[in-house]
Write a structure and sequence with these properties.
It is a single chain. This protein has 396 residues and is mainly α. It folds into two domains: 222 residues, no CATH class; 117 residues, abc type-2 transporter like fold. Helices cover 62% and strands 6% of the residues. It is built from 16 helices and four strands. A four-stranded mixed beta sheet has the order 2-1-3-4, sandwiched between helices. The chain is elongated, with a radius of gyration of 30 Å. It starts with a helix and ends in an 8-residue tail after the last helix.
């Protein structure tokens, strides 16, 4: 009896041998394991949804306004007061007067202001006499968004006042008011931003970072799940079995991707839906590519926790390697090559071009080819690891 009972206890945990696993058996088992594992469920489904709600929230105002700035007026003339008044009227700036430049610098050092304008003594006299005159604008270059607003706000104020002075001088010389106004700008400049008409920071960064979120959460969840299977000696699978696993994980990530493109971007009024069919096709290729890479990493790490420890720290480097926040051709040559082994390199630009710019499939074909090539490379590497990693099964 004892020999029979021992024989029964030595049955493997997996009910189906790897060689006999079918696509649908692995597909359904993967679904069951995902929803039975709280950590994987949190990473694959719950975390991206939470990110979708809260990541865009800090950028809800889109455009930075009311940046605190200082004005140092050494002239104390009608012209200098006009400059200060126009600067105060700018929605980009909140002005404060300082008695001297040293006080303004100390305010920058203590983060009370982001920059200041210095109006030199004798400015009005120089302008009225036709001499060259200057005002200085100094901003905190360590914070480029605030620095841009400081310079733009003050330059608009100074430009408006300067144009008014030119008009008055032309009228004094006998020109008509309409002609004088036209002569202040011989070639009128009209700036029309495309695809992000509000020039909002959220509409710029969130659609790109969303692709990073989809990739990293899917990578970590997949690697965690494969690591768990390895620890339980359930990682072995046939080729059809691995395809079933990849398809199951990709399906869940595809649904989350539809949540981002169909609801999150709409909620925050980001440009979207310009080529929705192309976007869905993009997701249908992107998700399996990332899931396959996650399977490779899971087999490589072989431990559940290691995927979190490593992958959570590479999100920011991956974003910079994508070529979205910094031109890719300005990266070091070696990074320009390495960046193409990461799915987000072709994925971010392809996603933005389809979803926000309305590009056609032929215009983003290179991105699709790159993702397809990466999937083939990852899958071939997965099959190689499948042969090299021990397939030994655990027994009770």
């Amino acid at each position: 009896m004892s020999a029979q009972s021992n024989t029964k206890r030595e049955k493997p945990q997996s009910d189906i041998a790897p060689a006999s696993q079918t696509f649908w058996t692995s597909f359904l088992q993967t679904f069951k394991d995902v929803f039975g594992d709280k950590g994987v469920l949190l990473m694959l489904i719950i975390a991206p949804i939470i990110y979708g709600f809260f990541y865009p929230w800090p950028y809800s105002t889109e455009v930075v306004n009311h940046v605190p700035v200082g004005i140092v007026d050494y002239d104390n003339s009608n012209l200098s007061r006009t400059l200060a008044r126009y600067a105060s009227a700018s929605p980009s700036l909140d002005t404060e007067h300082f008695i001297n430049e040293q006080a303004a610098k100390e305010a920058i050092w203590s983060d009370q202001i982001a920059g200041y304008m210095v109006i030199p003594s004798g400015l009005e006299e120089q302008v009225m006499s036709g001499q060259q005159a200057y005002v200085s604008v100094l901003g905190n270059g360590g914070y480029f968004i605030l620095n841009k607003n400081v310079q733009l706000g003050f330059s608009q104020a100074v430009g408006t006042v300067s144009a008014g002075i030119k008009v008055k001088k032309s009228i004094a010389k006998g020109a008509y008011a309409s002609t004088a106004a036209q002569n202040t700008q011989a070639i009128p400049l009209r700036i029309m931003p495309l695809y992000n008409q509000t020039e909002g920071y959220g509409a710029y960064v969130v659609p790109a970072v969303s692709v990073i979120i989809l990739q990293q959460t899917l990578l970590m969840a997949t690697a965690m799940l494969i690591g768990t299977w390895y620890e339980q000696r359930r990682h072995a699978a046939s080729v059809r079995g691995w395809l079933g696993r990849i398809t199951a994980l990709s399906t869940l990530s595809f649904i989350i991707g539809c949540f981002y493109y169909g609801w999150t971007f709409e909620l925050h009024h980001y440009p979207r839906g310009q080529n929705m069919l192309g976007t869905l096709l993009f997701l249908a290729l992107f998700c399996p590519t990332v899931a396959t890479l996650g399977c490779i990493l899971g087999l490589w790490f072989r431990q559940r926790e290691r995927s979190m420890q490593i992958l959570i720290f590479i999100s920011l480097p991956i974003f910079f390697l994508s070529g979205y926040p910094w031109p890719a051709d300005q990266l070091p040559q070696v990074l320009q090559v390495i960046r193409w082994i990461v799915p987000t390199t072709p994925a971010i630009n392809t996603s933005v071009q389809l979803n926000q710019m309305g590009a056609s499939l032929s215009q983003v074909a290179i991105g699709f080819y790159a993702l397809a090539g990466l999937w083939l490379f990852y899958f071939a590497l997965l099959l190689f690891l499948r042969k090299r990693i021990p397939q030994k099964k655990a027994y009770l």
